[in-house]
Amino acid sequence: MPKLPGAPLPDAPIVSQNYTDFAMIQPDPAKTWAQVSGLDPATLPACQLFDPPSPPTAGLTTQAKVKTPTWGSIGRR
After folding, report:
1. Among 3, 15, 26, 36, whose CB has the most other CB atoms within 10 angstroms?
2. How far apart are CA 57 and CA 50, in angstroms?
3. pTM above 0.90, yes or no
4. pLDDT at 62 over 60
């Protein structure tokens, strides 16, 4: 992960993703696209992958308020 000088390292240990009840079965495209066509884009929550909300800064030290870059902020200023 990118890091700014003086910013604290994230407290994130190794992460794993475990699947249960997994089966190599191809989904029915008609059922899959029926779910997509039934979505109303006006009611979907905003995507926060590349623009997540800022965390609260109350009580943090000046050093902790330095915004650590994310993969979504690469190339943005």
Report:
1. 3
2. 20
3. no
4. no
